Amino acid sequence: MPAGEMDRPEVLRRFEVTVEREFVAVRASVDEEFMALCPGCGHDVLMVSPDRAAAALGIGVRVIFRWIEEKKVNFVEPGAGKVFVCFESVQRAAGSKDGLKEISSGESK
After folding, report:
1. Ramachandran area for residue 96 (φ above 0: left; ψ -120 to 50: alpha; else beta)
2. Which of 8, 15, 46, 83 is the most buried (most CB within 10 A)?
3. pLDDT tens digits for 68-93?
4. Is residue 11 within 8 Å of 58, Cβ to Cβ?
5. Do 61 and 51 contact (CB within 8 A), yes or no?
6. 40: closest CA among 88, 91, 102?
7. Kind of pairing, strands 82-86 and 33-37?
8. CA atoms within 13 A on the CB side of 59
9. Share of the chain above pLDDT 70, in %
10. CB 102 within 8 A of CB 33
């Protein structure tokens, strides 16, 4: 060892990393979501109310209605003034399935 190295104290550096995650837990009633055959996708999907989809994705409900008007999302109108959107198509319209706030049938996470 070169002279002087034994006299030098070892320098240790400590880093602290904090990770914060935010999620939305939304409870839904039967009136807000159900599994059904999506007319656009052609398979069983989670159909949700526009309010529920907007809350789950952290976007405004007007965005969901605009996507319906622009035919960017699949939807059904079962009557009584109700509209339900295919959550898979809403995720696609939003750009990605990953990184979105998830919703799960009646479960809060």
Report:
1. beta
2. 46
3. 999 999 999 988 889 999 999 999 99
4. no
5. yes
6. 88
7. unpaired
8. 19
9. 66
10. no
The tokens describing 87, both together, are: 């959550």
Please give the C-alpha separations between residue 5 and each of 8, 10, 93, in angstroms, as whole numbers.
Answer: 5, 10, 61
Q: How far apart are CA 107 and CA 6, in angstroms?
A: 61
Residues 6+ apart with CB under 8 A from 89: 38, 40, 41, 72, 73, 74
For the chain, the DSSP string reads: --TTTTTSPPP------------------TTTEEEEE-TTT-SEEEEE-HHHHHHHHTS-HHHHHHHHHTT-S-EEEEETTEEEEEHHHHHHHHT-STTSPP-BTTB--
Rounded to whole angstroms, the Cα distance separating 66 from 68 reads 5
pLDDT of residue 30: 54
Which pTM was predicted? Answer: 0.61
User: Model confidence at 104, in pLDDT bands (50, 70, 90)?
Assistant: very low
